[in-house]
Write a structure and sequence with these properties.
single chain, 204 residues, mainly alpha, globular
């Protein structure tokens, strides 16, 4: 939509604590299911194929619904109060459905990225990667695939993830192109260096 880019849309959203927690729940449940599954992704092509799998997404329905229930009024308030050019009312009215679709797609995208990252660590180091590090790298690459992931801090960019899903959902923007760039970035990661730079306290 003209007159609005993703960054300006993101800046409109003030996220309540409950929404940050709902985002955390979606992410953590997704990782827990991935780690307990027998999913193995060894190449970018296999990760792309995983994007079409809806089984794990369906298992996260409750967590996704909680996210959507909290995110929808946040998005509607932001849209109604925004000084933007010609925002069709249908965007506001259909925001719950569109955000839900985006989050479900987003979960599959995160799973594909995380699975490929995990495999890279196993191949390069001979052992499983620290779970918290995989989570950190997955979200960093999902949100900013062109940047070198910042692993100097433990915190996950949950607010940025929530904003990405809300804005992309409301405005009908696909996140798949950036996900493909993230998967390409995974193949370029220096996983040994990242492990060494990962804070020691996280490994306790």
């Amino acid at each position: 939509m003209r007159g609005m880019d993703e960054d300006s849309g993101v800046s409109l959203l003030v996220l309540p604590r409950a929404l940050r927690q709902a985002t955390r729940d979606v992410v953590h449940e997704m990782f827990d299911r991935l780690l307990s599954s027998d999913v193995t992704v060894t190449t970018n092509a296999e990760a792309q194929a995983l994007l079409a799998d809806q089984e794990d997404t369906e298992a996260l329905t409750d967590a996704i619904q909680r996210f959507v229930a909290i995110a929808t009024p946040v998005a509607r308030i932001a849209l109604r109060g925004a000084r933007l050019t010609r925002i069709p009312w249908v965007l506001v009215a259909s925001s719950a459905i569109s955000i839900g679709v985006t989050v479900r797609n987003g979960v599959r995208e995160l799973q594909a990225i995380a699975a490929l990252i995990s495999r890279r660590f196993e191949q390069e180091t001979g052992e499983a990667a620290d779970t918290a590090l995989v989570q950190k790298l997955t979200l960093e690459l999902y949100l900013r695939p062109r940047r070198t992931p910042d692993v100097s801090q433990l915190g996950l960019p949950l607010a940025a993830l929530a904003r990405r899903w809300i804005v992309s959902g409301v405005f009908g923007r696909s996140t798949r192109a950036k996900t493909k760039k993230a998967l390409e970035a995974v193949e370029r990661l220096d996983v040994v260096s990242l492990s060494e730079r990962w804070p020691v306290e996280s490994r306790a």
